[in-house]
Write a structure and sequence with these properties.
The protein is α+β, with helices and mostly antiparallel strands. It is built from eleven helices and four strands, in the order βαββαβααααααααα. The chain folds into two domains: about 170 residues, Alpha-Beta Plaits; about 60 residues, no CATH class.
């Protein structure tokens, strides 16, 4: 079935999620994070877009992007191709790094822009990586509170809160202390692995020709692979369904 056309927003502002292929890790170290940030900053000049927010997680990326001179698809192809070329060279690998089709939603109001920005910045806290938003190094939150505009175009969101910059920053900090309950575009719910994708991950990860072979492994080896499959994003029910291993055994790993 052909994929549906993306919904074009009137504002040109989009919340974008770019995921690693099969939930692959896309940032191994600080250099990788820094390279991606330099990449999106360099293409701002060529493609003429603005970045209102970002958060680089282990296997996915959130961007709040305003397209201007070029349309979003072209922008994302430029960014993706440049980073993947460098990443493959660094790690002496080849092939896909990102999921072929990124996720996006149009952001049409000032209120929703602030909601999405808070949602993006709260991701590392919700994931249990840090306790406070400011403790995460690879998001645009500290650009705002430090009044530092390198990659992030901080003025647009801060002016919505207050045209006085210092007052705007203080409102921004207070706003981000409120738990985000809105249903924004999500990585887990919207990008859940299909059984076909999960089967391929099991076979590749465990070096087997059938996912059912995993239950034949000796316990220590089997448990190690189950842990790795969970880290790859497979649910307990998927592992149970595709391997024949009991739910109780999977939950114990």
């Amino acid at each position: 079935m052909p994929r549906g056309a993306r919904k074009k927003g009137e504002s040109g502002i989009y919340h974008i999620i770019l995921r690693g292929h099969n939930r692959q890790i896309i940032f191994e170290d600080d250099e990788d994070h820094e390279k991606f940030l330099h990449t999106i900053n360099n293409f701002k000049i060529k493609s003429g877009y603005r970045i209102y927010g970002y958060c680089l997680m282990g296997n996915h990326i959130h961007l709040l992007l305003h397209e201007l001179n070029e349309e979003m698809g072209t922008i994302m192809r430029r960014i993706g191709a440049s980073y993947v070329y460098w990443y493959n060279w660094k790690y002496k690998r080849c092939g896909h790094l990102f999921q072929d089709r990124y996720k996006s939603e149009a952001v049409e109001t000032d209120a929703y822009l602030l909601t999405v920005l808070r949602y993006i910045h709260q991701n590392p806290v919700k994931a249990g990586i840090v306790k406070n938003i400011s403790g995460y190094k690879w998001s645009s939150y500290n650009d705002y509170i430090n009044n530092f505009a390198w990659i992030t175009d901080i003025g647009f969101a801060l002016d919505i809160l207050n045209e006085d910059r210092e007052k705007g920053i203080q409102k921004f900090i207070k706003y981000h202390q409120i738990p985000e309950e809105a249903k924004c575009l999500e990585i887990e719910a919207s990008l859940r692995l299909t059984d076909e994708e999960a089967q391929e991950i099991i076979k590749e990860k465990c070096c087997i020709t059938s996912s059912l072979r995993l239950k034949e492994f000796e316990k220590a080896k089997k448990d190690r692979f189950i842990k790795e499959l969970k880290e790859e994003g497979l649910s307990t029910r998927q592992i149970e369904r595709l391997t024949g291993i009991s739910r109780g055994a999977i939950l114990k790993t």
